[in-house]
Amino acid sequence: MDVDRLRLDTAGTEHCIHLNNAGAALMPRPVVEAVVDHVQLEARIGGYEAADHRAEAIEGTYRSVESLLGAQEGTVALVENATAAFSQALSAIPFREDDLILTTRHDYVSNRLMYLSLRDRFGVRIDTVPDGKEGGVDVRRMIDAIHRRRPRLVAVTHVPTGSGLVQDVAPLAQECLRREVPFLLDACQSVGQMPVRVDEIPCTFLAATSRKFLRGPRGAGFLYVSESALEQGLSPLFPDLRGTDWIEEELSQPAPDASRFENWEFAWALILGLGAAVDYAVDLGLEAIRERVVLLAQRTRTAVGEVPGMRVLDRGNTLSGIVTVEAESIPARDLMTGLRERGINTSVVERGSALPDFDERGIEAALRISPHYYNLEEEVDAVAEGIRELVRLRRGGGPL
After folding, report:
1. Segment 168-224, tens digit of pLDDT
2. Which end of the chain is more exposed for a tag (fewer CB within 10 A), N or C?
3. Which of 239, 262, 283 is the last residue of a domain?
């Protein structure tokens, strides 16, 4: 991987050390150009006309995402973000009172809020399968629960927002496939930093975003819908005219493909940026991306863990590019602010985004450091040195 060339493609590397890729990564030049070019085209000839003019390129975004996922043509819907994708998938499940959702302790907060809403409105039950001793859901216990309890849905977050954990989701998806139980995967933090393929993780639905490790623009995402789900007629609770035809006054018909989950109104510039981001990642190779991201993340854990008073929080058999740490003497938000003033971007995960995990370990908030393949080893060392300086200043009683 030619990191120098990749950094030339990434204008933001000239202005800051960006270690907040789990929030929103720096976009590479082809992505920025795809977005800006289309906005300029809309300004010249009009929004509808620009979409018609770029119809072939827009169609190419679908093919690119399908290729990224190893998915069949017609199984990808383009949406505004991962949460919109997840909610569309949830709305397609015909829940009844006492139906069971099986999940894990590492749900993304918005996903768990949706489950709670389903519980409050429709009497759906929620059960959380415990972790194994190394961290991450206990796969054996989850498979046993799928077999014995016959849930209406199994929903799992692949990589949590507040942890470096990578959950072992493939055997869960395979068991759900055998038992004909829908499996919904939140791949928001995993797509773009590692290979995620539906021919290896045979999920019913997969929700993801553009802005994180894929390095696309904010405001775009996608939903994978399996061929079997389409054949069963699963469709969103609140359809839009893009994905459903109004046949007669009292009759409608959903589209035959995943577009039944889409809305008419799109920011097509962002969709084209998403396509460019996917192509960029595929050209680099997801295995090569994963290798470098894991290397940089491990270097981060080692370097920050050597700072007196710092604790690395990540645990699990497999770890991702997300590094979470806690300081004995400095609140996470103060650390983030102090680092940002030094030109280093990180982020904070509050307790309310990771309740079961953080409460068990007595964590109020964590500093999240998330390097990507275009970061340098020296930048990882710089964040550790920045934290060391902030810890030293706090112990000395001075301002951060």
Report:
1. 999 999 999 999 999 999 999 999 999 999 999 999 999 999 999 999 999 999 999
2. N
3. 283
Instruction: Answer whether 162's CB lies under 8 Å from 194's CB.
Output: no
CA gap 286, 193 in Å, rounded? 7
Sign of CA pseudo-dihedral 270, 276, 280, 282? positive
The token duo for 297 is: 């993340």
CB atoms within 10 A of CB 239: 21
Per-residue pLDDT at 395 = 80
Q: How far is CA 28 from the centre of its chain?
A: 19
The residue range of the domain holding 84 is 29-283
Q: Per the confidence metrics, is the pTM higher than 0.85?
A: yes
d(CA 191, CA 348): 21
What stretches of the chain adopt beta strand conformation (E)? 17-18, 76-79, 100-104, 125-129, 153-157, 183-186, 205-209, 221-225, 244-248, 251-254, 310-312, 323-327, 344-345, 347-350, 365-369
Beta bridge partners of 17: 344
Q: Which amino acid is at 265?
A: E
Torsion of Cα atoms, 119 then 113 then 187 then 350, to 10°: -150
Identify whether 111 is part of a domain. Answer: yes
Instruction: Establish if 400 belongs to a structural domain.
Output: no
Residue 397 backbone class (left: φ over 0; alpha: ψ -120 to 50; beta: rest):
left
Question: Largest Cα–Cα distance in the chain?
Answer: 75
The total of other beta-carbon atoms located within 10 Å of residue 155's CB is: 28
